[in-house]
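Narrative of accomplishments. A recurring question from our advisory board has been how the design workflow behaves on a single, concrete structure rather than in aggregate. To address it, we present the structure tokens for one chain from the evaluation set, followed by the sequence designed for it. No filtering or post-editing was applied between the two.
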């Protein structure tokens, strides 16, 4: 067997369908691109139509199969409508990536119910509802991959960002519960854990050179993360190669968490 065939057997996503929330920006956009280039038909879901369309245009120009659905994942109705519309494009997904997330940042002492509710709705409830919608079908078909993007804040408090870490800690627990429910049927459920990644989510911190340098110094690699750093790990977790990896938190953080 030549090396290309061997690599394809392990990692190729040809014939798979992926749904990537938050696929129009940052980490989700890089993950959507990686899955599409590895062969999957990819549907990205977010609110802003302009960035959705630009991402899909870029991918289709490269010969990938990609489409977008505009939806607000902060309400149950929004999530349910998005799921149906997305599944209508290339069929029921084999791969679900939950990257849509918000970090509204009031410290816990100043946190109102509105921020708590919005944070839990987008960061935790939407991934849960999408799992409930697609997990059983994946299990029935005998193959599925659920990947959540969590945060180092699932493991430690950081820059006073209140409810955000709470939602991400719960998201890691959700991955374990999903893994328990569906792994016996070929559906693995894992999380990718970023450290500090230079994306629009971090616009405020990323524009402060001193803070950027201080955060880079906290990694072992010596730089902050880029969205592209998630491509390889996402393809691995979406592929046949990761069949025996489930319920895990895979840190893609340049060593931030062990330094
Ligand atoms: N960047 C980091 O340092 C970092 C660190 C740890 C964890 N993370 C996590 O990684 C994930 C991706 O973050 P990122 O840095 O790539 O952020 P980003 O560039 O801000 O992208 C966030 C994505 O989520 C979508 N989104 C936000 N609210 C939504 C809603 N209500 N309904 C539908 N879509 C919504 C956004 O599109 P619209 O606004 O158009 O809807 C966008 O596509 C998040 O879960 C984040 O918590 C990031």
């Amino acid at each position: 067997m030549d090396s290309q065939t061997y690599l394809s057997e392990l990692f190729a996503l040809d014939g798979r369908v992926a749904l990537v929330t938050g696929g129009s920006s940052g980490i989700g956009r890089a993950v959507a691109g990686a899955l599409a280039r590895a062969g999957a038909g990819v549907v990205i879901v977010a609110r802003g139509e302009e960035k959705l369309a630009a991402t899909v245009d870029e991918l289709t120009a490269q010969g990938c199969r990609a489409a977008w659905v505009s939806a607000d994942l902060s309400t149950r109705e929004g999530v349910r409508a998005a799921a149906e519309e997305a599944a209508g494009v290339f069929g029921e997904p084999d791969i679900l990536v939950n990257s849509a997330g918000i970090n509204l940042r009031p410290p816990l002492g100043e946190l109102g119910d509105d921020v708590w509710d919005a944070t839990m709705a987008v960061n935790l409830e939407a991934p849960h509802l999408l799992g409930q919608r697609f997990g059983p079908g994946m299990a029935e078909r005998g193959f599925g991959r659920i990947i959540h993007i969590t945060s180092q804040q699932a493991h430690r408090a950081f820059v006073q960002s209140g409810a955000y870490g709470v939602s991400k800690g719960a998201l890691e627990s959700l991955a374990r519960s999903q893994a328990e429910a569906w792994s016996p049927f070929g559906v693995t459920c894992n999380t990718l854990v970023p450290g500090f990644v230079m994306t629009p989510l971090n616009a405020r911190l990323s524009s402060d050179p001193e803070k950027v340098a201080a955060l880079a110094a906290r990694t072992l690699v010596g730089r902050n993360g880029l969205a592209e750093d998630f491509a390889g790990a996402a393809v691995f977790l979406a592929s046949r190669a990761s069949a025996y990896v489930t319920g895990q938190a895979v840190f893609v953080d340049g060593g931030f968490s062990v330094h």
